TrEMBL record:
This is Large ribosomal subunit protein uL4. The lineage of its organism: Bacteria, Pseudomonadati, Bacteroidota, Flavobacteriia, Flavobacteriales. It holds the Pfam family Ribosomal_L4. It comes from Cloacibacterium normanense. One of the primary rRNA binding proteins, this protein initially binds near the 5'-end of the 23S rRNA. It is important during the early stages of 50S assembly. It makes multiple contacts with different domains of the 23S rRNA in the assembled 50S subunit and ribosome. Forms part of the polypeptide exit tunnel. Part of the 50S ribosomal subunit.
Length: 209
């Protein structure tokens, strides 16, 4: 399996990169993708929600009326959940929503998303780009030359490139990450995935571990 390497003008350079069939050509496992996306989103939750229960309300504990003989329902003090301003029954408490997944399943999830992207022709390989200084206009020119205008795109770097990152930071539909920072959520959330040429083999090696 091969992909041609494109230059910053969107033209073919004549070079090709080899893609591992076991990474980009498997039958997608949708449940594995679901689990990793769920894990990612769960980890983003602050879990700081809190409501007061009956014992935490500051109010009188006087019994409002006698237990029997009134002809209506019995109740105790003003902190009862049946009254406005009373405690909440089984309200939310601070908690950690994170949960663990094994590494093999997370690798399978990434392979599944990449294989689906390959079927949809949504993966491109770009030659190494070096900006002399951060300049959003230059990044937009490359972005449009690749035919990505109006699309959400994930750019995958072989190593941290400050100028590329800063050049793309103001673009709402663009995300730039190094190959070892990517989650299945990032891949699913991107309409197009653009690998820098040097990142392809490193990314594949990372998924073979």
């Amino acid at each position: 399996m091969e992909l041609v390497v494109l230059n910053t003008s969107g033209k073919e350079t004549g070079r090709k990169v080899q893609l591992d069939e076991a990474i980009f050509g498997i039958e997608p496992n949708q449940h594995a993708v679901y689990l990793e996306v769920k894990q990612y989103l769960a980890a983003q939750r602050q879990g700081t929600h809190k409501s007061k229960e009956r014992s935490e309300i500051t109010a009188s504990t006087r019994k409002l009326k006698k237990q029997k003989g009134s002809g209506s329902a019995r109740y105790g003090d003003i902190k009862s959940p049946t009254f406005k301003g009373g405690g909440r029954v089984f309200g939310p408490k601070p908690r950690d929503y994170r949960f663990k997944l094994n590494k093999a399943l997370k690798r399978l999830a990434k392979k599944s998303v990449l294989s689906q992207k390959m079927r949809e022709n949504s993966i491109k390989v770009l030659e190494e780009v070096t900006f002399a200084a951060p300049k959003t206009k230059d990044f937009i020119n490359v972005f449009n030359a690749l035919g990505l205008e109006g699309k959400k795109a994930l750019f995958v770097l072989a190593e941290t490139n400050k100028n590329v990152y800063l050049s793309s930071r103001n673009l709402p539909k663009v995300k730039v990450l190094t190959y070892n920072e990517i989650s299945s959520y990032d891949l699913v959330n991107a309409g197009e995935v653009v690998f820098f040429e040097g990142a392809v083999e490193k990314f594949q090696e990372n998924l073979r571990k």
